[in-house]
Task: structure prediction
Amino acid sequence: MTARMVGFRWRPTDRNGERKARIGLERLGPSFSKVSERRGVLIALAAADADSRILPDDLGVVLGPLFLSGEERDGPVTSVTSTEAWKLAESGGACLVQNYWGGYCAVLHDHGRDELHLLRDPCGAGALYVLDAGEFTVFANDAEDLFVVDPELDVDQTMLSAFLCQPRLVAARTALANVREVLPGVALTLMRTGRREALLWQPAIREPKLDFVTGQAALRRAVGRAASAWVGYSKQRGPIALRLSGGFDSTLVACALHHAGARDVICFNEFPADTPEGDERTFARAAAETLNFSLSELAAHPDHVSYSAILEARLSARPSYSEFSFSDSLLGDAINAAGAHVVASGQGGDQVLHRSRTASIAADAMMDGCPPADLWRIALETAQLIRAPVWDVFAAMAGAAPPWRQFSPYNNVFDNVLASYGSLPARAEWAAHPWASAMNKATPARALRMAHVADLHFYHQRSSLSGFIAAPLLACQPVVECCLSIAPYDMTRGGRERALARIAFGDWIPRVILERRHKGDTTRYHRAVLERQLPFIREMLCDGELVKFGLLAREPLETALRRDVVVDAKTKAQIMTAFIAELWLRRFLKTKAACALALRAGAGASSGMGSDLQSG
Result:
């Protein structure tokens, strides 16, 4: 877990702003220690560790795992020299994005211009939030700490409405009023007065462009370098825990770690008890035995799941499906017991290695000017991939050319009839995403791939595993940039998803996994969980806080919850989205009440409101 950071920015001549900022720091309690202060900028850390790099000369901090780009180097960057720190700050963070990678967030103070630059990992790790508190600005990597600084924070009801219709929405706006998230690829600059944003990275086509053959070699190098870096990191932080499902992606990560020299990887496979169609242990065992890794098999039982436990989770900046993980501590407890601090998985493989089944893949080939023979082959392969007539592919190719094409990451599948305000807020936030312009200019399949890279942000939302250090081998900057250099129709050559990756790592992956065509089906397990939790869901949602706020329509909600069993997948998704939003809102109200109580009790420098919140 990365150290918690809270920082303040006020106009250097504004004594009142400075006074209020220092009061905010006092409220956080003695667990926070000041590490930098200069010209109206103050930064404090709690639980600082080896990944907390305090830059010399009060130039800021870089938190989280950090590695050098473009070279074979084992292990992380543990410190930054004064010369390099000045380069990072004076470049506005551009040198950090270009020369380093990892799950970092950074605050860089350019003394010459007196500008403070806030940025994070372009692939979604290293959360960073900013609160406009009037006479000063607060920034933090934990949303609940903002609440301690400003107990008057309120709910952004528009963003809650947007979440109900698009639960994987990626937006700077959060569900906390006046709190914005620094999005991946963006540097937010706080000046003495005002602020601006600069786009330092986006998932556009990378140079040099790679073909089907050169792409395989480049992907092997990128994955190998990422694995070597994390193996070097684990030598300092203990063994790596790997979530090994037995699918292609998690097995690839296991093989990459093994080839990078890891020998103490502890694998964990969660399987649904009494649901054989969802049990993938046969494949996980094959992978672990091939690599001589230990494998712990964890049986997930529906009666061990308790959605009420989510109410005890620390407050996040917005609701997220990832918070369902708090309902069952099975995996986190097992990793803790094994003594691991770093957790790897195959997450991100769907987005990065191109699992997407879309006819627009062939449209990209047409717009790239592929020769007629190649275009015909790609059209046939795309039809095979999406399991549709080739004429459907031709229709997609014809409709892809401007001016008829307009791309939006908005997914109609998530439209929610239970929401009172419809999809407009979510559509507006997607349109405001900093990558939206590039998506509209890209070819159709590449635009979709850009949206998938934005979706990597989801894997770094608060979850039951947030206390561990995430090692996203497939969703890290070097691997993502490599895949962006390869055309979508080369990633799916032969009409199979992940085709290029399967060939590139064919000598690593056990054949029984390489030839898999289907994933385990956990539908019956999740239906059993829902049936057991339905009374609690009804209790929370009917006459709940969302209904009181007018964000949920009571009549369709009561109709959906009237049944003893929810069979329809779309209705189930709508209910679960509303439910996790309801639990988030209740946690918000609970945190707000606790802050108000601590404030009335006189919590300050001596007691610490932040300490009070964390203890109860």
